[in-house]
Design a protein that fits this description.
Helix content: over 70%
Structural class: mainly alpha
Length: about 425
């Protein structure tokens, strides 16, 4: 066995924590430092750590745990209130980026609607910009103490709806292209799978509800509920991706929603947060930076990347911000919601990978997409901090980030272990 992975993990954990602390010192969210750590130790700068399947798998667990925790921290009553707002924000925030991406590609490589392959490629670039990954936003909002409440809930709800819309559109495009990917399905089949996914979520919720009514004497201490909750999140993530074609992070978020109404939720949050904070989340944040490989870009692709990046940022801010404003959020909240949806993260990379598998895009477009993913992911927490930071709340939020998990653990240990 090659034990190099132990050294790689040590480098990732140490560098993300060090740069996270430096970020905190300059009043930026720690997640910014973790992302930059990945860029520095990755192929783009020092080339100490390269992307591999082990890092990808650990990072995937990290993002699943982040979204599970986001679901647990969601105020379900607030989510029901913001359901319509989330839909409007997601809808407007999908149309404008998709149009912007398609127009940008056409401006550089031409509009040839007679060529179906070129047309699909043009639309597909727009589909990539539709994608939203709120895992970074979730962590930033947690640091700033803004995750709970109407605004944070609207962002999470809109991201889920955004994901569903993206799946449908992606399926339509791959079907139009006559995709060669083995995972290509018809639009009708995709819609049926999405509907079945929500049926699956309801069934899981009913099962958890039944289990929660089992008398405590049959399973002794309640601390096992944290293990059970995480197991449910992993199972739902697997089923979402494998059986229904829905992103695994969506399954994890719904798993968190299932547990958010039960009394042990604070205990689950504390236990899973420690595991996530200590190991899996730093690897996830670093992995995004490690994926940055922009060598071999010619001048056309470089300029296309830069313009696409500007369009990617502005289209989400304008689109989602406009949707929020329509739903009567304040100007500051609308701007924050728009910024919170800017990060493309691993979702855009997954979409691009599926496009490549279907033969829609070639390798030369990948660096452009990776650049958009990395920069939007890094810039999102910085802009959120600038928009949402409250000088009175700043020190409190930072101290809560350091000790809240452990305080919650101590309190819940006393409550559940008697």
């Amino acid at each position: 066995m090659d034990y190099t992975f132990l050294l790689v993990l040590a480098i990732i954990l140490a560098s993300t924590k060090l740069l996270g602390l430096i970020s905190q010192k300059i009043n930026m969210p720690q997640v910014v430092g973790a992302l930059l750590a990945g860029v520095i130790i990755g192929p783009s700068v020092l080339n100490i750590v390269q992307e591999n399947s082990f890092i990808d798998q650990v990072a995937e667990i990290g993002v699943i745990m982040l979204m599970f925790l986001a679901g647990i921290c969601t105020d379900f009553s607030e989510l029901k209130k913001t359901g319509l707002a989330s839909f409007v924000i997601a809808l407007v925030g999908v149309i404008i980026p998709m149009a912007g991406g398609a127009v940008t590609y056409g401006a550089f490589f031409g509009f040839d609607f007679s060529d179906s392959a070129h047309l699909c490629r043009t639309i597909f670039v727009g589909v990539v910009l539709m994608a939203t990954s709120v895992s970074i936003t979730v962590e930033t909002l947690r640091e700033l103490g803004k995750l709970k409440g109407r605004m944070g809930t609207a962002i999470l709800g809109a991201a889920i709806i955004d994901d569903i819309i993206g799946i449908v559109v992606l399926t339509l495009i791959t079907s139009m292209s006559g995709g060669k990917g083995s995972g290509t399905t018809s639009p009708f089949e995709s819609i049926i799978k999405i509907a079945l996914f929500f049926v699956f979520v309801v069934v899981c919720a009913l099962i958890v509800k039944l289990i929660s009514k089992i008398p405590e004497k049959y399973y002794n201490r309640k601390h096992r509920v944290a293990i059970f909750g995480l197991a449910v999140a992993l199972v739902m993530s697997y089923c979402a991706e494998h059986f229904f074609g829905v992103a695994d992070i969506t399954g994890a978020y719904f798993a968190g929603l299932i547990f958010c109404n039960y009394s042990p939720k604070d205990y689950i949050d504390a236990k899973v947060s420690i595991t996530s904070y200590m190991f899996f989340s730093p690897v996830f944040f670093a992995s995004i930076g490690i994926k940055t490989v922009v060598s071999g870009m010619d001048s056309t692709i470089l300029w296309f990347s830069l313009v696409l990046l500007v369009v990617a940022i502005l289209s989400k801010i304008i689109g989602c911000g406009l949707g929020a404003k329509i739903c009567k959020f304040t100007n500051k909240e609308s701007l924050a919601i728009g910024i919170g949806m800017v990060s493309r993260g691993e979702v855009a990379l997954i979409v691009a990978q599926k496009g490549a598998q279907a033969g829609i895009i070639d390798e030369k477009l990948f660096p452009a997409i990776v650049l958009v993913v990395i920069v939007t992911t890094i810039i999102t927490p910085i802009l959120l901090k600038l928009v949402l930071a409250d000088k009175k709340h700043k020190n409190k939020a930072q101290s809560e980030d350091n000790v809240a998990v452990f305080d919650a653990q101590n309190e819940t240990e006393k409550e559940y272990n008697g």
